Amino acid sequence: MPAFAKNPKFIIGTLVVLWVGYVLYTNYQLDMVTFYLLPFDILKLQLKLSAIVIGAAVFGSIVTLVIQWLWGRSSNSNGATGPLPDPKTKTAA
What we know:
The protein is α+β, with helices and mostly antiparallel strands. Helices cover about 55% and strands about 15% of the residues. It contains two helices and two strands; from the N terminus they run αββα. It has a two-stranded antiparallel ribbon. Helix 1 crosses helix 2 (about 50-75). The longest helix has 28 residues, at about 50-75. The radius of gyration is 25 Å and the shape is flat.
């Protein structure tokens, strides 16, 4: 057995990928989901459940990345341009 296969990150990552594949394959077998946008069947939208699951995953990933980017941006904008000088060192200017 290769050394990388004994790594817990690899094992957990493999299990997650297999689980996501199972969820997508199982939901792909289901019928269409119908959204009625207007009454009396004037306007309806039919989507496969797998498309809804994939769309939700992509949307959640994008929202997570945007929130992380905004969070990192706000912590860096404290007004300081660099590390604070060490008060113990004295330099003649």
